[in-house]
């Protein structure tokens, strides 16, 4: 196994994840099989209990792992299926070491950060790197490891030390270190400043790691003189200094790296026989350029709770992007804080309330994404009602599906206090209930998580046609509540059809309103499996319906 380690310096939020995944793309385009590991030096065992407000979305894997959103970038860029073990956290490492200590596996020894924690990190990396992730047998050729945080953080020290030891044990021809850093431009002089990078490289070297390549983030392309200075002070050959300057969209990054021969430098460091031809990035280039040229857009109303930070719904945004690009459109996502739609909202001013409704009315379609807790639920119900009554295309994901059931029960079945027991334990009509297998005392990893099978009840539903599958589909889940089976007959008799169910037939997975242009709710999260060039079927359906193309698309043979 050969390793490419990507570290970050100076500041966080440099786009290290995108740089690391793009490196993976370029290596893959050279014909190599690539896997990846993301290291998060926080103490949480996984991202499952972390707030999307603070940390961005929780990404869910096939195996039910609740992980950092960077793993989503890797899955989308490299088109792989990762496992929960591909996300290493301090919490996981310490937990494994402490479990071993309790079992008495250390035979009376004092258990210490070095060597016990560092050994656990190395073993974990070596074990995970060989797990096949691309659907083929055998392990990958290269494992890209991204170390979260910035070099010098106290919490990443054990990882740096473990990686230093790893670089030594696997040998220099199997280890390539790429340090991502920032080149700011200061003041009126407009000079590109190299000092912060010099300092962070010095820090790295003091810890025993020497970068083979630098990936410099900057607003404008780097000047030759800046590169020379970096080379001289950072001990990196000028040819190995890559510039990742700002680009119109992230799909340009792999090409940007290839054009600077990043692959040659990495292959050389890793002692791979150099490939004769240039890596094939045609599809990426085409996609990036096509996107830049798109002029028409489609307005999508996103009615959610976490609207301050766009990373909170990263995969939903990516899935919308993939679907829009497939329709030659740019997504224009209009954020609506759900609580602003409520009439008696304590938080919204009259202006905010009016503006929220104006945005909703101007949108071509409505999306209510997943979420937890009762904040904004009233507004989401109003949005679902508006979409249903006005025949506006609607996609409800997880919470968004539960919202549409509550709305339908209230408006059509006249069950005015119908609700989910997540929001009202006393409701006389609990149309959404806590799942029997859930836990009320432990929050981490206790939901219905990961890939589960949904069986279509009829091939004649929109979802089955969009998926182009008549029997079943596998999608990822993350929920504690579900539609109450006791209400299904009543809801169906009134016109809301549950066209997708689990193997028992009792758990509702997909709902549709057959008399509506596009009204779909799903208990799962289709956004996690959307890929550039292979958009998620239900997102594609939403955009096609929003632009009046759905019927034509469905009647075409595929
Ligand atoms: N809060 C709801 C549940 O737990 C929805 C979860 C979600 O949208 N991911 O079932």
What can you tell me about this protein's structure?
By secondary structure, the protein is of the alpha/beta class. 36% of the residues lie in helices and 21% in strands. It has a nine-stranded mixed beta sheet with strand order 13-12-14-15-23-22-21-18-19, with helices on both faces. The chain has a seven-stranded parallel beta sheet with strand order 5-2-6-1-7-10-11, with helices on both faces. It starts with a strand and ends with a helix. Bound molecules: glutamine.
Shape: globular
**Are there runs of 5+ residues with pLDDT below 50, and where?**
none
Q: What ligands are attached or bound here?
A: glutamine
**Distance, first to last CA:** 41 Å
The whole-number mean of residue pLDDT values reads 92
The amount of helix comes to 25-40%
Give the strand line-up of the largest sheet: 13-12-14-15-23-22-21-18-19
**Total helix count?**
19
Q: Please give the number of β-strands.
A: 23
């Amino acid at each position: 196994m050969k390793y490419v380690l990507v570290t970050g310096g100076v500041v966080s939020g440099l786009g290290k994840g995108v740089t690391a995944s793009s490196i993976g793309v370029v290596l893959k385009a050279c014909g190599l099989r690539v896997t990846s590991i993301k290291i998060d030096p926080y103490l949480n065992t996984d991202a499952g209990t972390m707030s999307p407000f603070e940390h961005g979305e929780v990404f869910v894997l096939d195996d039910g792992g609740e992980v950092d959103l960077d793993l989503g970038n890797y899955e989308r860029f490299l088109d792989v299926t990762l496992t929960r073990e591909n996300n290493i956290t301090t919490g996981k490492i310490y937990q494994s070491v402490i479990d071993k200590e309790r079992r008495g596996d250390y035979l009376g020894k004092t258990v210490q950060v070095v060597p016990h924690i560092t050994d656990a990190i190395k073993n974990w990396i070596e074990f995970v790197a060989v797990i096949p992730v691309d659907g083929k047998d055998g392990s990958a050729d290269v494992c890209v490891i991204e170390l979260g945080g910035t070099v010098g953080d106290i919490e990443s020290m054990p990882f740096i030390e473990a990686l230093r030891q790893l670089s030594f044990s696997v040998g220099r021809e199997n280890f390539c270190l790429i340090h991502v850093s920032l080149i700011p431009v200061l003041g009126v002089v407009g000079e590109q400043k190299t000092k912060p990078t010099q300092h962070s490289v010095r820090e790295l070297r003091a810890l025993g790691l020497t970068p083979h390549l630098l990936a410099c983030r900057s607003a404008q392309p780097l000047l030759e003189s800046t590169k020379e200075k970096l080379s001289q002070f950072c001990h990196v050959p000028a040819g190995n200094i890559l510039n990742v300057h700002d680009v119109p969209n992230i799909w340009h990054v792999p090409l940007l790296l290839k054009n600077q021969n990043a692959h040659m430098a990495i292959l050389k460091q890793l002692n791979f026989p150099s490939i004769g031809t240039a890596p094939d990035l045609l599809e990426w280039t085409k996609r990036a350029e096509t996107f830049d040229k798109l002029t028409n857009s489609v307005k999508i109303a996103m009615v959610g709770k976490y609207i301050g930070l766009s990373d909170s719904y990263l995969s939903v945004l990516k899935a919308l992007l993939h679907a829009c690009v497939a329709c030659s459109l740019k997504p224009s996502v209009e954020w609506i804080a759900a609580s602003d739609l409520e009439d008696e909202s304590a938080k919204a001013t009259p202006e905010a309330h009016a503006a929220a409704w104006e945005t909703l009315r101007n949108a071509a379609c409505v999306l209510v994404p997943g979420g937890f807790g009762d904040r904004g639920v009233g507004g989401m119900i109003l949005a679902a009602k508006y979409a249903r009554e006005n025949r506006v295309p609607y996609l409800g994901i997880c919470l968004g599906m539960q919202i549409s059931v509550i709305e339908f029960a209230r408006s059509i079945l006249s069950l005015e206090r119908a609700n989910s027991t997540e929001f009202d334990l006393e409701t006389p009509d609990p149309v959404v209930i806590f799942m029997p297998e859930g836990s009320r005392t432990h929050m981490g990893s206790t939901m219905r998580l990961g890939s589960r099978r949904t069986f279509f009840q009829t091939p004649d539903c929109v979802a089955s046609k969009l998926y182009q599958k008549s029997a079943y589909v596998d999608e990822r889940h993350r929920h504690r509540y579900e539609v109450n089976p006791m209400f299904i007959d009543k809801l169906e008799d009134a016109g809301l059809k549950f066209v997708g169910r689990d193997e028992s037939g009792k758990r509702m997975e997909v709902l549709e309103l057959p008399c509506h242009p596009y009204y779909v709710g799903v208990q799962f999260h289709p956004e996690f499996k959307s890929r550039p060039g292979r958009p998620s079927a239900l997102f594609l359906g939403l955009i096609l319906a929003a632009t009046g193309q759905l019927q034509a698309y469905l009647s075409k043979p595929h």
